[in-house]
Inverse folding.
């Protein structure tokens, strides 16, 4: 190796170290500002994938509108059939509306429990459950427009968009959960008077968690992955 090549490599290592220091310093400063302003800190994609977990108890801390818009901008980037972009998003942050939806959920679930012969403790537990869920300040209904060309794919499009909402929310430091049955499509359709052309994929509360639960264990990779052929 020539002297000139050695000097060049030393320079590149030094420049890289300086650049990395600037980047780390900038990242730390941005995180400090975010904490001071009460905003969520962002994280890398792989951190969000690893740290995302379903949360069903929230605090009432507000979620800034710009964070909700950022989450939805990423949801729009999710894969979809034929780029027909059938997904629609109903954002609900009005506390009176959310209180009314919670009452509908409690009323419907209480009727089911009483029909099963459940006693008061189970009913009270259910009410506490919905109180924890509806403490979240923002709910997003993921809808799909059925009046599109590739009609057989809209349920998949909605699920993909919902997955990106969950990841984008976690990347910004927020908790979320993918609800289907606990807050049913029938209740949402009736309560929000959804037009017939839309079907609902799910409803997602977003907010600061009351606490971060531990991630449930996953199976070992070798238990779920096949290579080239399926084993019996």
């Amino acid at each position: 190796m020539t002297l000139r090549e050695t000097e060049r490599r030393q320079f590149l290592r030094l420049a890289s170290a300086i650049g990395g220091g600037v980047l780390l310093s900038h990242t730390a400063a941005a995180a400090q500002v975010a904490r001071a302003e009460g905003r969520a800190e962002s994280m890398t994609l792989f951190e969000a994938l690893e740290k995302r977990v379903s949360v069903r108890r929230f605090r009432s801390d507000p979620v800034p509108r710009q964070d909700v818009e950022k989450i939805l901008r990423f949801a729009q980037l999710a894969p979809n059939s034929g780029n027909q972009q059938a997904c629609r998003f109903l954002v609900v942050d009005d506390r009176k509306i959310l209180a009314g939806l919670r009452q509908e959920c409690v009323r419907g679930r209480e009727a089911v429990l009483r029909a099963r012969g459940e006693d008061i403790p189970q009913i009270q537990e259910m009410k506490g459950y919905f109180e924890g869920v509806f403490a979240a300040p923002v709910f997003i209904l993921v809808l799909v427009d059925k009046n599109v060309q590739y009609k057989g794919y809209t349920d998949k499009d909605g699920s993909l968009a919902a997955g990106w909402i969950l990841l984008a929310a976690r990347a910004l430091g927020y908790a979320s959960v993918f609800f289907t049955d606990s807050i049913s499509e029938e209740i949402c359709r009736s309560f929000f008077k959804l037009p017939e052309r839309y079907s609902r994929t799910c409803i997602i509360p977003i907010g600061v968690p009351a606490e971060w639960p531990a991630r449930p264990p996953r199976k070992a990779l070798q238990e779920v992955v096949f290579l080239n052929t399926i084993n019996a």
